[in-house]
Design brief:
eight-stranded parallel beta barrel, 639 residues, alpha/beta, 23 helices, single chain, ten-stranded mixed sheet
């Protein structure tokens, strides 16, 4: 412990502890000695870190505004390497005779930059793709080059989809059609015979094992996709009847995108391995077991089986999978298959960070109140004044009830014209001063009334920030998913405010009022006082999975600016690619407006104003320029 900590001075280490950074960051993010958030794609190499504020300043100097999504290429590479190396080490240690082949599920983040980097860096590990639609298959076929990598085709497949997959087989790719619905097999058999291609066929099974978490319905009898045991036997019989049982090579299942409990993963593996062994007994050559996704991201850093966490390490995950497959198949004298995982969320979550600035704040603070009030003050206001003076631990519940009662009386009086605006303003100051007194008193009490449990939420600030929740982190709104949110500067200074985060959409749901905490969910974010004239930036971390493609155009806020970043070995950074966010014209065109037609219509309205003598021709030119600038501008707040 350094002298600063001994003296009680706030330190960067205390910020790391407050925001639980070490536990959720995977080693990729930390706080510098001077209080800035640092990204380091090679954990353990302290000299390779770069301050996020330096990247943001570099982006601004190049003319791109916040909000901006930063994509760190090195982190994506590091995650792919870690997963493949950990599986390889587990297999070597346990004597596993098969291999590991990872595939990236395109649906997790379909951006071209992501697929390109997975194909490029993943080639050394034969890391392939999983696709669930014709569009995803077309994208994957354009990016993949490695003939040893697997290309897993899930989802509903029409004839055109199947033709593309069969052509991929002809070209030498390891393309697998996974049967998820009984009706698919007949089309595959028919097209394969006509094209004279031996297809690689897999079966997706519905396991009885069910995982916990947000995405539990991916497994169990009620899962949408997959075959039950009776349907599997029908597939085997149909393949035998067509002399194509030798095409059945893969077993697939999926129990969820984010499985927090290792027990659920192990239970599913044992069940699937038993089915795999039975398929071999039926005469299918098999050779591949695809266990789907499930490797969870520890978003809150609690290392528990809570939905936003996981109670296992990556090493434990890989070891348990390999061990479970071995122990089951060895009992049945079945050769070890190639193990495939579709770990998409874990691979890309760390890759992206959303950065936005704070635009304004609203504080529910203790206003200054007079030491005395006039004798003829409205009775309810006078009573509220007396309540304010008597707050103590002994009467805290009574004062809280009285404050609410008198405020309701005062507001009713204003509506009926019994008091004026100034009197109402005095009453509001008295009320919030009283509520803050009660909240401060409660903090000092070892035991407090249950009704006051959430009173701190009433006095939290609101920080208005330059982003759209619905566009950039929709899971936070839709399913209350937790993401780490941390200021990227001033982390050597104690944050003295507590706030909820509001976006700039005009929607009351456009807010974040749940934040990660080691033991529970925080209802406010510790944050710094905003200094007028200074830029203050906040980062939302682990947003690389799903958020970019799930976002919508609420209030016509479009995609943010995106910058791909590569951290160099000397601790500097390169901006390898810049993608400008949507303009106003872009988002209007998405909802069927024609920007050219909008300009024409507005020009007619402006010309009519000239004819009516409301504006001059010169003013019309200025107005039209402003309109066109607006169309070409960023949808977010610009300086």
């Amino acid at each position: 412990m350094n002298s600063g900590e001994i003296l009680g001075r706030w330190t960067p280490a205390k910020s790391e502890e407050l925001y639980n950074i070490k536990n959720w960051s995977g080693g990729y993010f930390s706080v510098s000695e001077d209080g800035y958030m640092v990204v380091n794609p090679a954990p353990g190499k302290d000299d390779n870190g770069v301050k996020l504020i330096d990247i943001i300043n570099g982006v601004a100097e190049r003319g791109l505004d916040v909000p901006v999504l930063l994509r760190f290429e090195n982190i994506l590479d590091a995650q792919i390497a870690l997963l493949n190396k950990t599986f390889a080490e587990a297999m070597k240690k346990l004597g596993y005779a098969g291999k590991y082949r990872g595939v990236y599920p395109v649906k997790v983040n379909q951006q071209q930059q992501v697929l390109e980097e997975v194909a490029r860096f993943g080639q050394k590990y034969h890391h392939g793709f999983e696709v669930g639609s014709k569009a995803e298959l077309i994208a994957a076929l354009a990016e993949i080059r490695d003939r040893e990598a697997c290309l897993i085709c899930n989802g509903y497949k029409d004839e055109e989809f199947i033709n593309l997959g069969l052509f991929a087989n002809k070209m030498g790719f390891q393309c697998f059609f996974v049967i998820e619905m009984p009706g698919e097999l007949g089309i595959i058999i028919d097209r394969a015979k006509k094209m004279k291609v031996k297809p690689n066929i897999g079966i997706r099974i519905k396991l009885s094992s069910v995982a916990g978490g947000h995405w539990a319905e991916s497994s169990g009898d009620r899962s949408i996709f997959g075959l039950n045991i009776t349907q599997i036997t029908e597939v085997i019989d149909q393949l035998k009847a067509n002399d194509m049982l030798d095409c059945l090579k893969l077993l697939h299942y999926h129990i969820g995108s984010q499985v927090p409990n290792i027990h659920d993963i192990r239970a599913a593996i044992f069940e699937a391995s038993r089915v795999y062994a039975e398929l071999v007994k039926e005469g299918a050559p098999m050779g591949y077991m695809d266990i789907g996704g499930g490797l969870a991201v520890d978003y809150d850093g609690s290392h528990t089986n809570y939905g936003s966490s996981r109670n296992y390490s990556v090493d434990e995950y890989c070891t348990d999978i390999v061990e479970a497959v071995m122990s089951t198949l060895d009992e049945n004298d079945v050769p070890h298959p190639i193990i495939i995982t579709e770990s998409g969320r874990w691979v890309v979550a760390y890759y992206s960070v959303l950065i936005f600035n704070v635009l304004d704040t609203m504080k529910f603070e203790s206003y200054e109140i007079p030491e005395s009030i006039e004798p003829d003050t409205f009775e309810a206001i006078a009573n509220l004044f007396e309540t304010n003076k008597t707050v103590s631990p002994k009467n805290i519940q009574e004062c809280y009830n009285d404050a609410l009662y008198y405020r309701d009386q005062i507001r009713a009086a204003f509506k009926h014209g019994q008091i004026g605006l100034r009197e109402l303003s005095l009453a509001e100051k008295l009320f919030w001063n009283t509520i803050n007194k009660i909240a401060d008193t409660k903090k000092r009490m070892r035991i407090s009334p249950g009704e006051l449990e959430l009173i701190e939420r009433a006095v939290n600030d609101i920080y208005y920030c330059n982003f759209s929740l619905f566009q950039s982190i929709p899971d936070s709104w839709a399913i209350d998913h937790l993401f780490p949110i941390v200021p990227i500067q001033k982390l050597d200074v104690m944050p003295r405010r507590n706030a909820v985060i509001a976006d700039i959409t005009c929607d009351c749901d456009g807010k974040i009022d749940q934040f990660i905490d080691l033991h529970d969910i925080r209802r406010s974010l510790p944050i710094h006082e905003i200094v007028e004239g200074e830029d203050y930036y906040v980062g939302v971390f682990l947003v690389g999975a799903y958020q970019e493609t799930l976002g919508d155009l609420h209030n016509l806020f479009g995609d943010t600016n995106v910058v791909s970043v590569k951290i160099t070995e000397d601790g500097d950074f390169d901006l390898t690619r810049e993608t400008h966010g949507d303009t106003v014209a872009d988002v209007l065109s998405y909802v069927e407006f024609s920007p050219a037609e909008l300009i024409r219509q507005f020009r007619e309205a402006a010309e009519m104003a000239v004819k009516e003598g409301r504006i001059s021709p010169a003013e019309r030119r200025e107005i039209m320029q402003s309109y066109q600038n607006g169309l070409n501008g960023y949808t977010y707040y610009e300086k």
